[in-house]
Amino acid sequence: MITALSIENFALIEKLNIDFSNGFSIITGETGAGKSILLGALGLVLGKRADLTSLKNKDEKCIVEAHFAIGKYNLQSFFESNDLDYEEETIIRREILPSGKSRAFVNDSPVNLQQLQDLSFYLIDVHSQHQTLELSEEEFQFTIIDAIANNQELIADFQLILKKYRAAKTELENKKSSLSGILKEKDYNEFLYNELASAQLKAGELEELEQSYEALNNVEFIKENLSALLALANDEEFGLLKNLKEFRSTLQKNSNFSADYGLLYERTNSVLIEFDDIVKEINRASELVFSDPEKLELINQKLQLIYTLQKKHQVLTVEELLGIQNELENKVVSVVTLEQEIAKLENTITDFEKQLDGIADNISKSRREAIPVLTEKLIAILGQLGMPNVRFKIELMAARVYHNNGKDTLQFLFSANKGTDFGLLKKVASGGEMSRIMLAVKSVLAQYSKLPTIIFDEIDTGVSGEIANKMGEIMRDMSRSMQVFAITHLPQIAAKGNCHYKVFKTVSGENTISELKLLNTEERIREIAEMLSGKEISDSALNHAKALLN
């Protein structure tokens, strides 16, 4: 429950600090006094968006802080999952800076708006006139029935599997789309792959082939040069070998006279050995050089094939061709792989559907058991609220598709009077009837939910007299198990509260301020009397107010 609320620099509120008690609290005030401002400030700590128009003084920040006693509501797991410090007296603070930026804190830990909204789901139900319209929406109607049917765990299990099911369906569609695209190009890809595979390409092959081609294509020229080199080396009169040997022999004669000459002799001897080896290599090479037209033609054919493939695939190297070959191979092979994966996914989806159908059947069964209970309770409460002939016909029908809460669709039919046909709630119920039905629904939900606090914002719209008195009694009964606030214009409801707060405006110079005050007994009598008779309070109005309070 909410135990305290403080507001600074919000709309018409300069500074406000108020404590709340459990039970049934009433909030009254003239139209425009600031009741909606109070709800707006509370909405900030519950995660609603705000802007600079919320600031009374645009140069100062707005702060709204609410204290909640949450020790009885088993919220430790929520705090753990959101990495927040759990405190039985939890403080939520919202700040709006003059720059327009907004900050939020739970027990001094910064949080985002989504976390605030998620937490507020467990703390407060603010019922506005707008929410009465939700009564005609199927999703809200299911919420009522599922609360009575205690379907929360079943629906949570259903939603967990449904999430996996939808993910698997999406993956299946993606894989089928990929397979379809690959199959369209399958023949062409296979042709391209086979063409590259049959070429038997190897990394670095192009350079080797080009060198071999040049060598074979210039055999005569190479042979002629090698013969010339051998003649230069081996000529008996002027050959390099003969001259080098004579050079070494002459140098040897001086080697006995100086170490330097000896060193030069050793170096010359090394040159002679190396040159002799070179001549032998050239001689062997010369013996191996011969014309081979067939090999030259084969190399030429392989080169032309590689050049053609390079041009076709718009690449410059064999390595790039091999990369394309691998990609094509993967596409060709992926057809089989994708078909296997699709088959596996289809089996998985079938398993999910069996699980979902089983849980959906259990949800539907418990709903059918809950509907008579709901109908009976609503009729009993609405009978007290001046609708003795009201009837409900709640039809549950099986759907072929999976919804977020099962496989049912719902028709919530209503008849207010004897002899009238059933019709859809939103079409046949008046505004006053919708208000009473919503109060009856909230009263029933209070018996099944563990929500700490509910705020009724003018749920009494369209009712008066004894009906208003009964509505007040129902809200007072609800306050025995939860904290209830009612913002009302009706004295019959105002008199039923344990505590009574008044919202009012004061004017100081050019400044208008909204304030909230807890009324004492005498102030409360005068407030209810004013609600009965207006500003001119008569003695009969005062007596009537006292009678209502008693």
Automatic annotation (TrEMBL):
Coiled-coil-forming residues are 155-219, 328-362
A GO cellular component annotated for this chain's UniProt record is:
bacterial nucleoid
- The organism sits in which domain of life? Bacteria
Gene3D superfamilies found in the cross-reference section:
P-loop containing nucleotide triphosphate hydrolases
Q: Does the keyword Protease apply?
A: no
Write out the GO biological process terms: DNA recombination; DNA repair; SOS response
Q: Which GO terms describe its molecular function?
A: ATP binding
* Record has Zinc as a keyword: no
* Database matches in Pfam families: SMC_N (PF02463)
Location of the RecF/RecN/SMC N-terminal domain:
1-509
Q: Which UniProt keywords apply?
A: ATP-binding, Coiled coil, DNA damage, DNA repair, Nucleotide-binding
Question: Could you tell me what this protein does?
Answer: May be involved in recombinational repair of damaged DNA.
The record ties this protein, via PANTHER family, to:
DNA REPAIR PROTEIN RECN
State the similarity comment: Belongs to the RecN family.
The protein depicted here goes by the name: DNA repair protein RecN
Q: Which organism is it from?
A: Flavobacterium silvisoli
Name the gene for this chain: recN
